[in-house]
Design a protein that fits this description.
This protein is of the alpha/beta class. The protein has 2 domains: 285 residues, Rossmann fold; 72 residues, Alpha-Beta Plaits (2-Layer Sandwich), CATH 3.30.70.20. Helices cover 30% and strands 22% of the residues. The longest helix is centred in the middle third of the chain and has 14 residues.
């Protein structure tokens, strides 16, 4: 039987809950390579009333705990979302991940591996190789509601293994909550975490993944079964597991326990009264047929990001002085030597954004290609 801990906590004393999580779900860490992945969606001040990212104090408590267990190596990092593709260092600095991780922080977006996913589309994608190579993988999601997946937790945190605009590609083409859930299942299957510790002290509510609405739950959840943890999270927010397509797919593919009666819950997991949920069902809020939607969830928003391509400023580029960092890291060979700068083969670009991550001269930006935008619009 799967087990989920639900612990009362505040950020000031979260180390106590973290200790309990490691005691309940012991890991063999001595001599191992440990990767810790928080949720770094976008820049924000975690010390104000925002709940878009894992709070840095929980990350810090996990790092300090892992240090005591004798690992060979600790790596901390994530890929970022939306309009901040290619700016992981900037985002992780603002949300204080770099500060608390110190020497353990690494920009994982600079170490990618191509893998083939078969569902819902056969497609090669670039993912975080550091996570795939972890001997112990610890995932630190944030309790959130979400406009497309209804809830966001341990399974969806693995979507961060996918880098840059590749995330937008799947948002744009997945079309339905069920199909999008399938890509989340595929990403989760690449590397299920060994331990999930969820920040639900100040949870995010309303229309996620980047809603300004917060809700003080004052709890930390933990489990070695991400699906079970997400099931308990859904119930606490006010959803039955059967209402959440991602949980039903997790059940179908045997990714963990999603039947509440088969989950041993230690702590108070009662449904939270008045927790604000997305105002519309996923199909309506994403407005796929109309091609428009609300804010960042419209198809227009994602169409623009699917059309992102690297644009190089020849005045800033140091290609003629021997720098070829962007071309060297490109996992698909889309950037090739040109006369004064690397030259882009647009059809080869997979939107991973690694080129922008490694440019030390701020010579490269990611901008929508008008021709690709027109092609996408014509095909809708």
């Amino acid at each position: 039987m799967s087990k989920v801990l639900v612990m009362e906590s505040r950020y000031e004393d979260c180390a106590e809950a973290v200790d309990r999580a490691f005691a309940a779900f012991p890991l063999e860490i001595a001599g191992k390579r440990v990767v810790i992945k928080p949720n770094a969606l976008k820049p924000c001040n975690p010390d104000t009333d925002t709940a878009m990212v894992t709070h840095y104090k929980i990350l810090e408590a996990v790092i300090r705990k892992v240090e005591t267990l004798g690992p060979r190596e600790i790596l901390v990092g994530d890929s970022v979302g939306t309009e901040f593709y290619g700016r992981s260092d900037e985002v992780c600095s603002e949300v204080r991940f770099k500060e608390v991780a110190g020497r353990y922080y690494t920009n994982m977006n600079k170490n990618l591996r191509m893998v083939k996913l078969m569902h819902p589309f056969e497609r090669e994608v670039a993912v975080l190789a550091d996570v795939l190579d972890a001997e112990v993988y610890i995932s630190l999601p944030k309790m959130k509601t979400h406009g497309l997946t209804m809830t966001s937790g341990g399974i969806k945190n693995n979507y961060g293994l996918l880098t840059g605009g590749q995330k937008s590609w799947y948002h744009y083409y997945a079309i339905s909550p069920e199909r999008f859930a399938r890509i989340l299942v595929e990403m989760f299957r690449l590397k299920p975490p060994d331990l999930v510790i969820m920040d639900a002290v100040l949870a995010m509510a309303g229309y996620g993944p980047a809603s300004p609405i917060t809700y003080p739950v004052n709890k930390i959840l933990a489990s070695d079964d991400a699906a079970a943890l997400d099931t308990v999270e859904a119930k606490m927010i006010g959803f039955e597991p059967e209402q959440v397509p991602l949980l039903m797919l997790a059940r179908e593919f045997g990714l963990g326990e999603t039947r509440l009666h088969n989950i041993q819950v230690e702590g108070d997991a009662a449904t939270i009264p008045g927790y604000p949920k997305p105002e519309e069902p996923p199909e309506a809020s994403y407005a796929y047929k109309a091609g428009v939607g609300t804010g960042s969830t419209s198809r227009l928003y994602y169409r623009e990001r699917v059309a992102f391509r690297p644009v190089i400023d020849s005045k800033k580029c140091r290609f003629n002085q021997g720098c070829a960092a962007c071309a060297d890291i490109c996992p698909t060979g889309a950037l090739i030597p040109g006369e004064s700068t690397p030259r882009l083969e647009p059809d080869q670009c997979n939107l991973c954004s690694a080129c922008k991550e490694v440019c030390d001269y701020n010579a490269l930006d990611l901008l929508p290609d008008p021709e690709i935008m027109a092609q996408l619009q014509a095909a809708e």
